[in-house]
Amino acid sequence: MNELDIATSYGTIHVYKKGDGRKTIILLHGGGCDNAMLSWSEVIQSFNDEYTIYAPDLLGYGKSDKPDGLCGEKFFDVHIQSIKQMSEMLGAENVKKKSVAK
To answer: Is pLDDT of 102 > 70?
Structure first.
């Protein structure tokens, strides 16, 4: 598994990547005491070579930046916009399905 750091206008997002297949999936973890590897490490390993899997640590979690002012009214908007920017930079902006851990 590779690890990437993707700079967005909101901060740097740490991304775990497995594979280089033609089907792309982005796995988004939940909130609270969570991060990409806590939610998805076993799931990521189950995908075969036809997939490219990205599992980012959302801003404020894991190895990603922890910007000030991320809580409150801006919380969801910042995460949505930063994931959009990350997806564009990875060339995965047209991914149709994204999963969220509960």
So the answer is: no
Average of per-residue pLDDT across 46-62: 94
Residue with tokens 């990521």: 44
Please give the Cα distance from 27 to 97 (Å, whole number).
9
Question: What percent of the chain has pLDDT above 90?
Answer: 69
Query: Is 2-100 CATH 3.40.50.1820?
Result: yes
Per-domain boundaries in the chain: 2-100
Instruction: List the one residue out of 15, 4, 89, 91 whose CA is nearest residue 54.
Output: 15
